[in-house]
Structures are given as structure tokens and as C-alpha cells.
# Entry
Amino acid sequence: MPRVDDLLRRARAGLPEGEAELLLGHVLERGHAWLFAHGDAAVDDRAAAAFDALLERRRAGEPVAYLTGRRGFWTLDLRVTPATLIPRPETERLVELALERLPAGPCRVADLGTGSGAIALSIARERRDAKVVATDASIAALDVARTNAAEHAIRNVEFRHGDWLAPLAGEHFDVIASNPPYIAEGDPHLVQGDLPHEPPAALASGADGLDAIRAIVGDAPAHLHPGGWLLVEHGLDQGAAVRALLDDARFVDIVTERDLEGRERVSLGRRPA
# Structure
């Protein structure tokens, strides 16, 4: 039978750093530290074959997150499927900014296009006194988000089916946050990396990528308490356009914040008090 270190040595060729360990750890249900400490451990033929099958799929382009069914985000280990966008580290900036703008005490938050529930669940876990409502047009995505909420025993989130703010009729919130699709249709990036395997509706939005953001910015004021905030993630070259949309919708205190790599990433504005 092959050993752990032999399998990893052969698998690392042609894969980004750390991916072979993630895949083998998934097959063996072991963490990275165990793999490092037990390089001489034998791996039975069935597990080795399962590992080889995952390597073949990965080298064909399937994202690691879909192969393992998991992705870490904020402080959570989340279930993901091809029905959901893969949560990315830059979206943690959106969570951070939303938390900074929540009032003290009980409050209400909406997460639009929740996908795996990454944003909604991260906020809800940090603020147990917040009532979070998460919407998505995909029933399959909502099923994944509900599973993640149950796995982490996060009970202050309600999931609703519908497009953006449509399921929130008559309701008002202190913060509305969204990571909507913002890539232009036909953009060459859509056929690169992990993107061809992710749900198209969660990636692209109109000729300039801003259709979903236009809809959200246009409808959000009617669902915000006076002084409430809207925060939207967007592409690195869309900050000026999103600020203009917020200004047209009569938001104030408009600003674009950068991610950890210095790229414009989240634009936000406040409904006048």
C-alpha cells in the first residue's frame, strides 16, 4: 500500500501549493497536521484510488471547494456545492464593514443573494442579538445555506426565496449587505480558473456587470431605517460607477473601501436620517 508522503509527493506536481494536502486530508478525514506527522502511514488501495480520482477531476479544472464540499470563511467552515458561489477571502471585508455599522443592541440585517450563507451566517454569529434575513433566487443555494446554519447552530437567521429585495416587502433594516454578480457578460474571466464551474447567475450581470447592483441600489432605500446602511461588493474597476448609483439614489456618506490587497472592493452609503 502507498504511504501518505508518497501520495503527496506524486500529487503536488502541477497543483497549487497546499491543494494535494487538502484533497488527501478530505479523503482520509484528517487534518494537515496529521498528514505532516504521519507521512509514513499506509493508505489503503480504496482511499488511494479515491484520491487519484479527485486529482484527475482537479487537473480537469474542478474547484477544490467543490471536490471537498467545504470552504472556510470568516470563522466558519461552510458546506458549498456547484449551486453556490465559492466564498472568497475578499468578501470578508464586506462582513467586517457591515459589523462596524450595526447599532448596539437588537438590530436587523439583510443579506441579498446569500448563496452558501457566508455573509449572513458570519454576521449572525458575531451578533447574536441581530435578526438576519437572507434571500436568494436559488432554492438549491438556500438549501445549502440552511444546512450551514444548522451545522453551526446559528439560529438568528431566516432564509427566504426570491430575487434580491423582493422577499422583504414592507420590512426595514439597519444594514443591507450584498455580494451580487458583478462581472460583465462575455468577460474573458468567466472562462478562467474556477469561474466556469460556478453558477453563472452568481457571477455575471448585464453588459457592464452592474444590472444587479442597479436593482439593489434602486430598491434598498425603501427597506432601510433612516440612517441605515447599504453595502455592496463589486469589481476592482467599478467603484466610481457604484458610487454614482448610490448618489443618484440619494444616499449620503458614500465611500468605497479597499480589500487587503488594496483594490476597491466594497461601496457603501447611508440613507439620510
Remarks:
- The radius of gyration is 20 Å.
- The first strand starts at residue 70 and ends at 73.
- The chain has a mean pLDDT of 95.
